[in-house]
From TrEMBL:
It is found in: Cytoplasm; Nucleus. Gene3D superfamilies: DnaJ domain. It comes from the Eukaryota. This is DnaJ homolog subfamily C member 17. Keywords: Chaperone, Cytoplasm, Nucleus. Its main location: cytoplasm. One of its GO terms (cellular component) is cytoplasm. GO terms for biological process: spliceosomal complex disassembly. May negatively affect PAX8-induced thyroglobulin/TG transcription. Pfam families: DnaJ. Residues 11-76 form the J domain. The keyword Nucleus applies. InterPro entries: DnaJ_domain, J_dom_sf, Pre-mRNA-splicing_ERAD.
Length: 125
């Protein structure tokens, strides 16, 4: 089965309630347990149940096909690493932004009082 863009947006392991290292047997067991509760025949008036059942079926197909699972895991790992890099960069950006505030550079805060220039011309003098 080809791993679609829609499937890549989902966490198939969380959907089935299993860990990444789960064996095929565990994947199938989790699928059966979840599929029973949302089967369209048991929930004819609930369109969400049919959608969930379809997602569970797709998750089963991907996670029990070795090639599809490897492809899914590879993309999932790359996304996770990209998110971690982005988080680290965001933290660095926040620190740089904080370090660039006037208070950090030794200037008074905005709205603070400025001392009068003793050499300035005063009106009426």
């Amino acid at each position: 089965m080809a791993v679609t863009k829609e499937l890549l947006q989902m966490d198939l392991y969380a959907l089935l309630g299993i860990e990444e290292k789960a064996a095929d047997k565990e994947v199938k067991k989790a699928y059966r347990q979840k599929a029973l509760s949302c089967h369209p025949d048991k929930n004819p008036d609930n369109p969400r149940a049919a959608q969930l059942f379809h997602q569970l079926s797709q998750a089963l197909e991907v996670l029990t096909d070795a090639a599809a699972r490897a492809a899914y895991d590879k993309v999932r790992k790359a996304k996770k690493q990209a998110a971690e890099r982005t988080q680290k960069l965001d933290e660095k950006r926040k620190k740089v932004k904080l370090d660039r505030t006037p208070e950090r550079r030794g200037f008074p805060a905005a709205g603070g009082t400025a001392e009068a220039d003793p050499g300035a011309d005063t009106p009426g003098a």
